[in-house]
Amino acid sequence: MKSVYAKFAGIVGVLTLSLSVFAQQSSGPTLPPAELAKQQTERTTQQPYNNQPVWSNARGATSGYTSIPGPEAGVLIQDGGQTWRALKNGTVSVYGGWALVAMMLVIGGFYAWKGTIQLHESPTGRMVERFTLLERMAHWSTAISFSVLAISGLILAFGKNILIPVFGFHLFSWLATIAKTLHNFIGPLFIISCVITFVVFLRDNWPKAVDFKWVASFGGLLSGKHVPSEKFNAGEKIWFWGGLMVLGIVVGASGLVLNFPNFGQTRATMQLASLIHLGGSILFMVGALGHIYMGTLGMAGAFNAMKTGSVDEAWAKEHHEIWLNDIKAGKIPAVRSKTHAQPQPVGGDD
Amino acid sequence: MMKAVSLVLAGAAVLSLAGCGEKPQTVSAKPGVSAAKADDKPYNNDQFKNDRAAWERTLRARADNQNEYKRVN
Amino acid sequence: MARMKFICDAERCIECNGCVTACKNEHDVPWGVNRRRVVTLNDGIVGAERSISVACMHCSDAPCQAVCPVNCFYKTEDGVVLHDKDLCIGCGYCFYACPFGAPQFPQAGAFGLRGKMDKCTFCAGGPEKDNSKAENEKYGRNRLAEGKLPACAEMCSTKALLAGDGDVLSDIYRERVMRRGRGGDLWGHATAYGVPGAKPAAQPAAPVQQKS
Ligand code: HEM
Ligand code: SF4
Ligand code: SF4
Fold first, then answer.
1. What domains are defined for chain C?
2. Is the CB of C176 inside 8 Å of chain A's CB atoms?
3. What would the pLDDT profile of A83-116 be if each residue is shown by its tens digit?
4. Strand pairing of C37-41 and C50-54?
5. Which atom of ligand 3 lies nearest, measured to the CA of C90?
6. Is B70 on the interface with A (CB under 8 A)?
7. Does residue A208 sit within a domain?
8. According to a count of CB atoms within 10 Å of the terminal CB, is the N or C end of chain B lower?
């Protein structure tokens, strides 16, 4: 356990370090401005018209005096823009774009290989409550706002290359305006839904010893052996912590920086936030593709659990045996909903 | 487990081929053509009658006017 | 073929802000938007103080154009970088990318509400019909189509700020430097137009084919 945390801390450390290197790039002259000013004063008398010390002051984030108001109005040349452009249009978009394509291919291949994973036993007709109304509402508000953000974000990031040739400039500009507006207003809603979802599902996602067994055997996917799991298996827990929490914070925080330019952020801040946001959101979308696949096409009965809130006992036994046993043993209340409506015996077999 | 690790590594290797898709980023839009709307040529009007040479002469004279050594002497 | 450029001579600029005023007046630029600004380095230090007037430099390989998500920038035959306000969605990317801080926005509101980007047009308007009412309202006056150069440079009292075809400007500046004896470094030119001798940046005058 400890080494896992140490590794995680190490990765975070390396990331912060590399980011701070990026931020350093537009940090101005090598010598302090006062020193350069002194050099210039000397040079003006010794070699008139040689302004070299002034020019080395002109590049980077050092600010001169200007009567025009506004953040960074006194900066003559900022270096970071070119780095940002190269990474955003190049490395991050190219690798990120192909990562999305590759994920879709992997899922397609997996579907061709396994198809929809069916239940091995026939449904019993006895329904078990799995998600309360509150839990489902939290999940779906996150899911819907995520989808809107992902689609509108992709339009902003890749529409120029993919959609302008199809729609032409004017129609695409309309589309991009709608995408930008939706994205910027749904973004904060998404963050709120993420927080609610996190709180609501936290208890059931707490890591336990069984999860390591599940991970070690890939959930029995390759061996075909049955690995019992709790209400959420380790895969779902990884998505909870790595996706909802870590990527939620990374993408959400960088998104807020981009979304509220009214606090006078510098361009270096915006460039960094933009790259983190783009990279993080691509990872988020790659993960979400897998999650959505498993919740719909990949696994029979999973979608109905989140739609209706209850699952067949056979499904519960096959996918979340420990959880079902806990319910049967009375360790988890069978009905957690406040409403008295009995779970309806629907679905569970499609 | 080994099989899974090598699968992931092979996947990563294939994915890194994406780097080959990086193109030079020099903007290569056709000059003189607006992205969406065609822009008028600045000499295509009553004053210059679509005569580019005349327009360039006018602008050159104007630019030369900024040389005060020529203006003063 | 002409290649329009700006030159600002730091030995001459006296920080009078006449160019800033001329620009605002010529184009009726709204409050909060300043297409041109004068920056003074080492302000108040005798012998070290230098001022530079800066606006869009109309870059050869323009970063703003490269990052715009709706591709609303275009280059005229004469190397002037213009944009189409009807397409702009106000995302601010061009401002993040531009080395000179040229793109301006009417506001910097919450939820990324910025309004349409505005910047120096080299007094060449926009894609609307030259000197039409629509062009004037969106982009200001189109002096280039009247056979005139940018107002800021034409009214500069010390002729620190020069505008026009790069070749003509070079001649003027060369003569100036020869009379002074030395000091040929031009502020911002390496950034905007590339370093001489290095791999040439995209030249707008040459008909480059769209690569794909
Ligand atoms: C988790 C789901 C999200 C996804 C998948 C996502 C995706 C994206 C993508 C792909 C872009 C385009 C990046 C580029 O072109 O460089 C973008 C831009 C942006 N995102 Fe997000 N994003 C998400 C969440 C958020 C949140 C929570 C916020 C804010 C609270 C936010 C605010 C922004 C802003 C302000 C931009 C700049 C776009 C503009 O103003 O034109 N995003 N997002
Ligand atoms: S100076 Fe800025 S706005 Fe002007 S062309 Fe260059 S990058 Fe674009
Ligand atoms: S603000 Fe407008 S011009 Fe600038 S990059 Fe965004 S859409 Fe393009």
1. 4-176 (3.30.70.20)
2. no
3. 999 999 999 999 999 999 999 999 999 999 989 9
4. antiparallel
5. 1
6. no
7. yes
8. C
